[in-house]
């Protein structure tokens, strides 16, 4: 099938590449010429495991191309996927300007039937807005009778495992109103859900709602675990044992129960805010979502509080090694990363930070440009040099079994503040290190 993907970011690029892998001819459009240049030069603008190989293979096969030419991209796809950003507005609601602009471009230029598929995470009712924008552009051209379909197809991939998630999805949700759109979407996704009944076909509003409900449910789990971890410390319990104890109940399950330094990234923070706004606008402000967000903001400070409790408010003269900057492993995404808050707070108290991340350093330098006192190290060892204590902020695999002797020998104060509970307290202490983690004695 001929597919156009509008917006070549984390979601759009993975969607385009994976759809082309199944034989579709995909054209990816972006308004950012720098991104398209990188792609046309044989690279990819983001770090995502396995993505470069899929992109290169399908570009070579002539099934995947990248362009900034809107006219060409609208002409190309029978299916037009909108995968542009929906960042938070000042009040927290989703900013739909990019979605609307993409829809208007389609209406302005389409000459035959298009199925317009919204893949961006958008508030309930956006399908109607997309339909209205396209219809408005068609009317301006005197083409009001031209038919088109609108669909909602929210994306559930996880950054860091995006290709694997897209290729083997837990479920595909499609919100659609007409048979033709449903048939095309079923055909498109059939290869990804072969022999598995994993397509959920519903109405557009329910599909839009599913995405927010899913992310907010997950964010709630994290905030609840984080709150429990703080309580565990107070009452002298071990949150890791509590996690295992409750996770073995199949109604609770083991995933997404890890306490840490708060959730970040481009999705949970903005989606929690956006659903809270939707609730407020509909006359039922959400107490749950407000609490989820508040707990998360507090949790980003949990390591800072432990550091201040240990050293006092004035951290001048102290240098902290920081392992991990990205909001989670296997990505270079720094959007809303808790590391940014932690670094800012430490610098404000006069400390220096020597940070190391396996892939996110370049992006970190961009988003924290000019932050005096923050420097970047080439590796774990270099980050430790001349540092007083170590902070672990992202649970990259390479941090899981480090050179404990080396850490103990490098750190002046021999203290590890672990925001991800990576180590057995007994073990790390046996190397002569003081160990402060989350929710453990
Ligand atoms: P992103 O910011 O990485 O990419 C968006 C891209 O759209 C940018 O490259 C931008 O230049 C481009 N763009 C903006 N307006 C355009 C237009 N009119 N025409 C063509 N291109 C345009 O965003 P990301 O992370 O890929 O997210 C996209 C949507 O998917 C958001 O709604 C997000 O909530 C949702 N989502 C994101 C996930 C993630 O893990 N990043 C997972 C699931 C959903």
From TrEMBL:
InterPro entries: 6-PGluconate_DH-like_C_sf, NAD(P)-bd_dom_sf, UDP-Glc/GDP-Man, UDP-Glc/GDP-Man_DH_C, UDP-Glc/GDP-Man_DH_C_sf, UDP-Glc/GDP-Man_DH_dimer, UDP-Glc/GDP-Man_DH_N, UDPglc_DH_bac. The active site is at 267 (nucleophile). This is UDP-glucose 6-dehydrogenase. Substrate binds at residues 156-159, 211, 256-260, 264, 328. NCBIfam families: NDP-sugDHase (TIGR03026). It catalyses: UDP-alpha-D-glucose + 2 NAD(+) + H2O = UDP-alpha-D-glucuronate + 2 NADH + 3 H(+). Its EC number is 1.1.1.22. Keywords: NAD, Oxidoreductase. The keyword Cell membrane does not apply. One of its GO terms (biological process) is polysaccharide biosynthetic process. One of its GO terms (molecular function) is NAD binding. NAD(+) binds at residues 30, 35, 86, 121, 159, 270, 335. Pfam families: UDPG_MGDP_dh, UDPG_MGDP_dh_C, UDPG_MGDP_dh_N. Belongs to the UDP-glucose/GDP-mannose dehydrogenase family. Pathway: Nucleotide-sugar biosynthesis; UDP-alpha-D-glucuronate biosynthesis; UDP-alpha-D-glucuronate from UDP-alpha-D-glucose: step 1/1. Residues 321-425 form the UDP-glucose/GDP-mannose dehydrogenase C-terminal domain.
